[in-house]
Amino acid sequence: MHFMPWLQQATRDMFNILLPPACAFCLDTLAPPDPDFLCNACRDLIRPLQKPCCPRCALPYPAETGTGHFCQSCLQEKTIKFNSVTAAGPYEGLLRDAIHRFKYRNDINLDRPLGCLLAREIVKTAQPADLVIPVPLHKTKLRQRGYNQSALLARQIAKQLQWPYASDLLIRTRPDPPQKELAARDRTKNVKNAFTLQRQLAGERILLVDDVMTTGATARECSRTLISSGATAVDVAVLGRAPLR
Questions:
Q1: 3-state secondary structure of 213
Q2: How far is Cα 226 from Cα 223, in angstroms, rounded to an integer?
Q3: Helix %, strand %, coil % for the chain, to 5?
Q4: What pLDDT shows up at residue 33?
Q5: pLDDT tens profile 72-89
């Protein structure tokens, strides 16, 4: 009756000997094996967002002291519909390099360690969600890249937190230029009315997942679409939070 669990453990031990598990970021051997596939040195290099920062959009402030207060954008922007932003860390250093590998270099195996990093921060700050939804790619961009990194990340987070996951509920209706190629003032216009839902929502609380937040234009427009389609609240989770340039 106990033979199968013993065999499974023996098989895992054999693979660990023949192919020792390595850190997903630096490829150093992990001993003992870490369930997140990150070594302590790499984990220590990804620091959390420092206070003070905006309590709504998590924009980090340059001053190292002071109280958290709403940033100018959150005070002036009337289209902000999300409640909060959780980030694994600032968009810099090792985290930035890992996001680039994950997003642009087809290193999709980083979905698990990056998802675990972000899930740990989410449980500290965000309320439980009824649905985890990724920021979508337009079908043209999806064919070019072959995968949506935000969808892979959102699926891992939903698995870690045991929250329902909806991969295709929010869709992108047109292939706009990438936000990173635009000035900050043009990003809101670029994503205006660029999203729609496959069905109406019925008061669900949504966790919207993306890889990086810079100006927040994409998160604002997605959140506006979700709220106008029946969501009762939207929280945003991103791997990296970039400062204003």
A1: strand
A2: 5
A3: 40, 15, 45
A4: 67
A5: 888 887 767 899 999 999
Prediction pTM value: 0.88
Tokens representing 134?
């990724």
Return the sign of the alpha-carbon dihedral for residues 11, 14, 19, 21. positive
Q: Which residues of the chain have pLDDT under 70?
A: 1-19, 33, 64-67, 79, 177, 181, 245
Among 200, 105, 107, smallest CA distance to 153 is for 107
What is the pLDDT, as a whole number, of residue 190?
78
Contact 39, 56 (CB under 8 A): no
Q: How many CB atoms lie within 10 A of CB 196?
A: 12
d(CA 65, CA 225) in angstroms, rounded, equals: 36
Q: Residue 235: is it exposed, middle or buried by C-beta count within 10 angstroms (0-12/13-18/19+)?
A: buried
Backbone angles phi, psi at 15, to 5 degrees: -65, -35
Residue 136 CA neighbour count, 13 Å, CB half: 24
Q: How far apart are CA 94 and CA 23, in angstroms?
A: 13
Compute the distance between CA of residue 243 and CA of residue 22 in angstroms, rounded to an integer: 32
Concatenated DSSP letters for 29-80? BPSSPPTT---HHHHHHSPPPPSSB-TTT-PBPS-SSS-----HHHHH-TT-
